[in-house]
Amino acid sequence: DAKTTQPNSMESNEEEPVHLPCNHSTISGTDYIHWYRQLPSQGPEYVIHGLTSNVNNRMASLAIAEDRKSSTLILHRATLRDAAVYYCILRDVGGSQGNLIFGKGTKLSVKP
Amino acid sequence: ETGVTQSPTHLIKTRGQQVTLRCSSQSGHNTVSWYQQALGQGPQFIFQYYREEENGRGNFPPRFSGLQFPNYSSELNVNALELDDSALYLCASSLAVASGELFFGEGSRLTVL
To answer: Is A107 in the B-facing interface, judged by CB distances under 8 Å?
Structure first.
């Protein structure tokens, strides 16, 4: 699986939007872009995934660049509960289904 | 619908001992994978089981082994424990579809003294 690059940490204020960037310049055509987050003392939690088009769900939005070399996870209104480590992961559609390659992720802090 | 549950939540072992960790998959999920997460690091893939067969393995030695049972629950066994095996061990279940999301348990925290 291709590697991703994320900032080590970001800060946000409560109730403001948060844009978490991810670079994946060596992405292949069959790589899905997945985002997971891990709250303190919990296992990772699925957030969203996409292939080429922007995606929205109840938790977040995923904006994918036209060349697919970068993407941005958007939390529309950050809450204190959104403080977590966010992982951007590429997964080949033909690869081992349960094998996600986690980096160190971005630690998001949310200030009240 | 029950989520992924793991046991025990915490345990302490000494070097050279063996440990068995258990995982109950989310209802209806036929694939289970195990991860090791050292402090301050992202989870690392150990292996995956699908229909009781191992069908994917990360860069872990053979003393890490597993089982999946007909009800899709799973065990992770680690023999000859080393100090560096101290970590959070996470189990994740999923449906065997290409883009399916993984559902993680809260993990078992292993300390090796």
So the answer is: no
pLDDT in tens, A29-74: 888 999 999 999 899 999 999 999 999 999 999 999 999 999 999 9
Q: Which residue of B lies nearest to A88 if distances are taken between CA atoms? A: B42
CA distance B95 to B75: 18
Q: In whole angstroms, what is the distance from residue A48 CA to residue A39 CA?
A: 16
- Mind listing the pLDDT tens digit for each residue in B5-47? 999 999 999 999 999 999 999 888 888 999 999 999 999 999 9
Q: Report helix, strand or coil for B25.
A: coil
Residue in chain A closest to B97 (alpha carbons) equals: A97
Buried b (16+ CB within 10 A) or exposed e, A23-48: bbeebeeebbbbbbbbeeeebbbbbb
Distance CA B25, CA B21 (A): 13
Please state whether A109 falls in left (phi above 0), alpha (psi between -120 and 50) or beta. Answer: beta
B107 backbone φψ class: left, alpha, beta (φ>0; ψ -120 to 50) = left
